[in-house]
């Protein structure tokens, strides 16, 4: 099932279940998706690819995590809890992320595949990781690990 169809199906299910938090979060996702779709039209893209939707969802999660930190610093736990609930709903549409052992294994495999010798080859390694594991690998966690392995 395409992600757009999944959003619609989950929205209907949340509305039937009278789950206000899920309805709100999924409507927010679909609004952001429409903005992305409108922005892509001048480029000749008729339907936003799932990879772009996943990237959009990751960006939404990242901004909400930053908001959670700010709300906690500002002593607003109720707003932080609301953001965390939205994060959980958004993440339910994302593929499961690799654990640390999986990330390390993928990094070592990419280094071996590219024959990288030092930091100057980091771009090649990151490109291989992005090509093979873009959906299931958090690149912000992989970058420092690649740098660490290449610095040895």
Beta percentage is under 5%
What gap, in angstroms, lies between the N and C termini? 44 Å
Instruction: Name the CATH homologous superfamily of the largest domain.
Output: Uncharacterised protein YqeY/AIM41, N-terminal domain
Number of helices: 7
The assigned CATH architecture of the largest domain is: Orthogonal Bundle
Number of beta-strand segments: 0
**Sheet having the most strands:** none
Rg calculated over all Cα atoms: 18 Å
Note the topology.
Elements: H1 3-16, H2 20-40, H3 50-73, H4 77-91, H5 100-114, H6 122-133, H7 139-151
Written overview of the protein:
This protein has 152 residues and is mainly α. The chain has two domains: 3-91, Orthogonal Bundle (Hypothetical Protein Yqey, Chain: A, domain1); 100-151, Orthogonal Bundle (Arc Repressor Mutant, subunit A). It has helices at 3-16, 20-40, 50-73, 77-91, 100-114, 122-133, 139-151.
List the defining traits of the structure above.
mainly alpha; globular; Hypothetical Protein Yqey, Chain: A, domain1; Arc Repressor Mutant, subunit A; 152 residues; 75% helix
